[in-house]
């Protein structure tokens, strides 16, 4: 087998080798990145206002998609994250922590003795 490969030579054609050239992609769209960040932040702290801002920024990112290189996957993911963060802010229960007002309104403990 080794002798057969030596007699045939190298199968590559050096004249047809083309150097790899990177495409002109700029990376993630800034509005989509901001929308993802705001959506995840809204989901973490359950703030409705941040969720609405994330949704508006994701819609702005969808509107400003460049025509030469549409990146629908990033636009769809940023809008879905913002919608999920709004759902988490509105429908997930927020645990109630007793604060100083709740302690002041509570009746004093009964004396035993």
TrEMBL record:
**Membrane-spanning parts:** 49-69, 75-92
A single BP term in Gene Ontology: protein insertion into ER membrane
Compartments where located: Membrane
Keywords (A to Z) from UniProt: Membrane, Transmembrane, Transmembrane helix
Q: What is its main location?
A: membrane
Q: Which GO terms describe its molecular function?
A: protein folding chaperone
The family assignment reads:
Belongs to the Asterix family.
Q: What is this protein called?
A: Uncharacterized protein
Identify the species of origin.
Tetradesmus obliquus (Green alga)
């Amino acid at each position: 087998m080794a002798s057969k490969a030596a007699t045939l030579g190298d199968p590559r054609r050096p004249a047809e080798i083309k150097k790899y050239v990177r495409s002109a992609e700029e990376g993630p769209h800034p509005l989509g990145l901001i929308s993802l960040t705001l959506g995840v932040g809204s989901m973490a702290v359950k703030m409705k206002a941040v969720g609405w801002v994330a949704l508006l920024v994701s819609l702005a990112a969808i509107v400003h998609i460049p025509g030469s290189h549409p990146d629908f996957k990033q636009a769809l993911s940023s809008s879905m994250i913002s919608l999920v963060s709004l759902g988490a802010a509105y429908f997930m229960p927020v645990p109630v922590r007793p604060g100083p007002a709740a302690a002041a309104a509570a009746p004093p403990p009964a004396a035993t003795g």
